């Protein structure tokens, strides 16, 4: 199976089930938008897929490798985690130069100095920030820091890119650069992209398929055009039109 699939997923906090998904799959090379009201479980889904948390039950299939998420050890999860990249809403930079921040994943992967340098420079060029290479990362503007967070993820060439509202606090200029970069990567490398966004026009611009998450369930999924123009369930129609009261 050349795809990513999550099955029998249940996530609870205390005695509250916040996410219950029978089965959801993502084809390799697809660009998926994930939308839904606040608290619906969108970030939880991506955190679980990125192996940052363990659910009560669930299996993950990642491009040919199948794992049980409940019993997965850190060591067994690491090779899977290395196929994924994750960018959250707020970038967290290490107290080091921009170069060292972008190079971090490559150091863990024991790349040679020469290869590392070439890859970091390529990633910095991609996000149009070659000129801040030697700057301390904690002095970057919010928009620059988020583009560096993207470069740091892309430099490791992930097969699956998980984006959790990555442009939510960016200005239009930085949003357009961020979007251009992920579209380029998607086109050139066939990276599978899952992007959570509250910016519905952004989901329409970028995603081929959209999913609507509400109350811990994936309640609708369709190609982007149908998703926004012919929603099947009233919940989604209400959400899109702004009538949904969260
Ligand atoms: N560690 C935790 N402990 C307890 N409850 C949690 C925890 N993490 C998330 N939750 C709860 O799980 C639910 C889903 O949270 P999640 O962050 O996935 O929502 P979301 O759809 O990403 O919302 P938003 O659009 O606001 O980011 C929320 O009600 C949240 O309060
Ligand atoms: Mg969230």
From TrEMBL:
Cellular component terms (Gene Ontology)? membrane
In terms of SMART domains, this protein maps to: AAA
Pinpoint the ABC transporter domain residues: 4-240
Annotated Gene Ontology MF terms? ATP binding; ATP hydrolysis activity; phosphate transmembrane transporter activity
Q: Which organism is it from?
A: Brevibacillus panacihumi
Write the record's keywords in alphabetical order, separated by commas.
Answer: ATP-binding, Nucleotide-binding, Transport
Q: Which GO terms describe its biological process?
A: phosphate ion transmembrane transport
This protein's name: Phosphate ABC transporter ATP-binding protein
Question: Any keyword Nucleotide-binding?
Answer: yes
């Amino acid at each position: 199976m050349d795809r990513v699939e999550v099955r029998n997923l249940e996530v609870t906090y205390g005695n509250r089930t916040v996410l219950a998904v029978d089965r959801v799959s993502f084809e390799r090379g697809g660009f998926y938008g994930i939308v839904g009201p606040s608290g619906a479980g969108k970030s939880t889904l991506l955190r679980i897929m990125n192996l940052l948390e363990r659910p009560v039950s669930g299996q993950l299939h990642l491009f040919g490798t199948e794992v049980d998420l409940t019993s997965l050890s850190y060591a067994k999860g690491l090779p899977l985690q290395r196929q994924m990249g994750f960018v959250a809403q707020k970038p967290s930079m290490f107290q080091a130069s921009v170069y060292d921040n972008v190079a971090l994943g490559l150091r863990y992967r024991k790349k040679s100095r020469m290869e590392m340098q070439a890859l970091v420079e390529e990633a910095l060029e991609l996000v149009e920030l070659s000129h801040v290479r030697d700057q301390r990362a904690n002095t970057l503007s919010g928009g620059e820091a988020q583009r560096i967070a993207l470069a740091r993820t892309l430099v490791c060439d992930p097969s699956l890119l998980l984006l959790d509202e990555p442009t939510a606090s960016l200005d239009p200029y930085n949003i357009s650069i961020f979007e251009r970069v992920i579209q380029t990567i998607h086109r050139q490398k066939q990276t599978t992209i899952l992007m959570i966004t509250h910016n519905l026009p952004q989901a329409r611009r970028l995603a081929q398929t959209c999913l609507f998450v509400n109350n811990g369930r994936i309640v609708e999924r369709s190609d982007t055009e149908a998703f926004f123009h012919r929603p099947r369930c009233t919940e989604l129609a209400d959400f899109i039109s702004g009538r949904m009261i969260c």
